[in-house]
Amino acid sequence: MSVNGPFELCTVAHLVRPLGVTAHDLQGLRDAVADLSPSALFQHTVQHRLRHQVGDEPPRDDLSAWVAGVVQDLETAERLGFAIAENSASPEGVRAAVLGVLDAVPERARRNRDAPEGGDFTLLEADTVVLPTGHEVRDAAAVLEALPKTDVGVWFYHLLEEPWFGEPEHTLLSWVESQDEKLAHAFRAEVATGLPIETIRRRLMTKMRRRMLGRRVIEASGHPPDVRRETGREVVGRLIRRRRGGGENPS
């Protein structure tokens, strides 16, 4: 993929399987995380943003959710959740962050903070199946047109999963950044919120529609007066409909 060539948008499916590894206490969780593959780390620290698609608050990752809800160590869970959210851009970053939090708990306390019977944490791993969508974009403007027509899996794959596993220079984010730094920054800023992917999708589509409307007004400025008036009426009409809650269907 060249920065000047087309980019094919893809969606993703995940085939989840147990690793045959469980954690009974914080020490067991620490030992498991130290040896987890990048795909297993992704499953437990990032993939929940696709499973819990909607919400205005960042959902809990699997690790901190287990520590809070089953082990009932709320302080460690809070620190884990914060560390994972702040370092979830790469497997190396998130692994170091989790180990840092758990290593700060004395070993004896790690063994004493355990799960009740039947509450052990089951470690999972997912195989990623990347599927083409048939949407090919040739520049950043085409991204604004194409992304709203795709499903949430496309957004999750290109904004969260592709940067985690892929070579940075070959991701959609890098490709967009080479042409439109402002748009790439908007994508990265939303990803950094930790919000569910459907919420990110909704927020970004609102911003993208505004950019497209503004672009249409600018492009119409060189047209005859009647065309400019019609474009202006269309833009104002869309803004009024959105304020009244009757916005356009994003798909």
Chain-wise SSE layout:
Layout lengths: L6 E17 L2 H10 L2 H8 L2 H4 L10 H10 L2 H13 L4 H13 L3 H6 L8 E17 L2 H7 L5 H14 L6 H6 L3 H11 L5 H24 L4 H19 L8
Antiparallel strand pairs: 1-2
Low-confidence stretches: 246-251
Mean pLDDT: 86
Helix count?
13
Class from helix and strand fractions: alpha+beta
Number of separate structural domains: 2
Dominant shape: elongated
Helical percentage:
55-70%
Q: Give the number of DSSP strands.
A: 2
Description:
- This protein has 251 residues and is α+β, with helices and mostly antiparallel strands.
- The protein folds into 2 domains: 7-126; 138-243, no CATH class.
- Helix content is 58%, strand content 14%.
- The chain is built from 13 helices and 2 strands; from the N terminus they run βαααααααβαααααα.
- The two termini are 27 Å apart.
List keywords for this structure.
single chain; 251 residues; alpha+beta; 2 domains; two-stranded antiparallel ribbon; 14% strand; elongated; disordered C terminus
What can be said about this structure in brief?
This protein is α+β, with helices and mostly antiparallel strands. It has helices at residues 26-35, 38-45, 48-51, 62-71, 74-86, 91-103, 107-112, 140-146, 152-165, 172-177, 181-191, 197-220, 225-243, and strands spanning 7-23, 121-137.
